[in-house]
Amino acid sequence: MKKLKVQDLISIGIYATVYFFTVFIATMLMRFTVPVFHSLLVPSMSALISGTLYIIVANKVPKFGAITLVGSVMAVFFFAFGYFPLAFLPSFLFPLLADFVQTKTKISDSLKLMVSYTIFSFGLTGPILPLWFMKDAYSESLLNKGKDMSYVNSVFEGVSTASFFVSMLLVIITSIIGLKIGKIIYTKHFAK
Amino acid sequence: MENRYVTFDPRSKLVTVLFASVLLISRANPSMEFVFIVFITFLLSISGSFKKGFIILISYVFLNFLTMTVFHEITGIITAIVSFVLVVYKSLLPPIAAGIFATQHTSVGEWVSAMKKWHIPNFLVIPFIVICRFFPTLRSDVKSIRQAMKFRGIDLSVSEVIRHPIQAMEYFLVPILKQVEYTAQELSAAALVRGLGFEGKHTSVIPIKLKIQDYLLLASLLVLLLVEGGGVF
């Protein structure tokens, strides 16, 4: 395993900042265009726009650890700004898995990039997963107020389960599209 | 550095954040949540951000008020969703408050020396420093790129982004990514000159020491934890 040098670490820090910035743009775009459930679409939106950055990171620092660290910037952010602990775990684990796929496996390059980018994109699902997990907390408080369980279920069944699968599927689709766009931009401007 | 406000060690700030997260997972009872919010407000006030603490306290009371009165009766899907969002925001407020407390008045240098004290490896410390230092640069870069785009008649408004998404993305992201490459090279050179690549032990000018207020903070957190634990059993 090639070790990360100081220069690599600095590049990683910078790319991580840019990644943080693209996630910020995605969040803002969604906030101004989609009402109420904009947060569900943030992972797919940022998957759509950070393809180029991902290709650059994979090419510039082709060592194990780079992708993990770039993704973990979101984990640190979610942690420091006190989101759910569950929120920071996915944004560390999914990039780690993507890193393994990108640097340790021996499948063809373009397929590898696509698979690892899709996994990487799931890292942002952290803050929205509690929307489904904290449903328990919410229904608990409803039950305490004297509602019965069947009522709680009827309120949330349609909203939750369907939206969960839709938003997860959307992440996969948008990350494939995002990588295609990223590749076009990369070959046009960055490939030497 | 003489300061009339009380300052806390980065480490005890981090413990506060952790405590808030634990509070959220363990689904503490509302009174404990309220006590913690008041506690954080107090901490923010004595460390010099009275206004922020006040805003947090007010918004907590306001959210609670809404859940208790307006959305108490759930009549349909709309009220259900609104009330759900309210509950989520309300329970996310303590950790957010703790996060604000942790990031207020703590310089990068302090965080770094605290991290060094904890023997956190270089491959985590260096990206962290770079992110903190590079963020303002990136912001000014973005500003000048947007100005250049306006000069050329390319607007980056929401409607324009929706009409030509790929074009907007290309014109916006490519300059940033190009600029970033140069910055990375410059920063690497600067870092090497400053001896960041040195393998041995680094020294720091910032003293990291737990003071009396840190012990008081940690002790009161422990008391809160014990009370919470006692309530469960």
From TrEMBL, chain A:
<feature type="transmembrane region" description="Helical">
    <location>
        <begin position="155"/>
        <end position="179"/>
    </location>
</feature>
<feature type="transmembrane region" description="Helical">
    <location>
        <begin position="114"/>
        <end position="134"/>
    </location>
</feature>
<protein>
    <submittedName>
        <fullName>ABC transporter permease</fullName>
    </submittedName>
</protein>
<dbReference type="Pfam" id="PF09605">
    <property type="entry name" value="Trep_Strep"/>
</dbReference>
<feature type="transmembrane region" description="Helical">
    <location>
        <begin position="12"/>
        <end position="30"/>
    </location>
</feature>
<keyword id="KW-0472">Membrane</keyword>
<keyword id="KW-1133">Transmembrane helix</keyword>
<keyword id="KW-0812">Transmembrane</keyword>
<feature type="transmembrane region" description="Helical">
    <location>
        <begin position="69"/>
        <end position="94"/>
    </location>
</feature>
<dbReference type="InterPro" id="IPR011733">
    <property type="entry name" value="CHP02185_IM"/>
</dbReference>
<feature type="transmembrane region" description="Helical">
    <location>
        <begin position="36"/>
        <end position="57"/>
    </location>
</feature>
TrEMBL record, chain B:
<dbReference type="InterPro" id="IPR051611">
    <property type="entry name" value="ECF_transporter_component"/>
</dbReference>
<keyword id="KW-0472">Membrane</keyword>
<dbReference type="Pfam" id="PF02361">
    <property type="entry name" value="CbiQ"/>
</dbReference>
<dbReference type="GO" id="GO:0005886">
    <property type="term" value="C:plasma membrane"/>
</dbReference>
<keyword id="KW-1133">Transmembrane helix</keyword>
<keyword id="KW-0812">Transmembrane</keyword>
<dbReference type="InterPro" id="IPR003339">
    <property type="entry name" value="ABC/ECF_trnsptr_transmembrane"/>
</dbReference>
<feature type="transmembrane region" description="Helical">
    <location>
        <begin position="118"/>
        <end position="136"/>
    </location>
</feature>
<feature type="transmembrane region" description="Helical">
    <location>
        <begin position="215"/>
        <end position="232"/>
    </location>
</feature>
<keyword id="KW-1003">Cell membrane</keyword>
<protein>
    <recommendedName>
        <fullName>Cobalt ABC transporter permease</fullName>
    </recommendedName>
</protein>
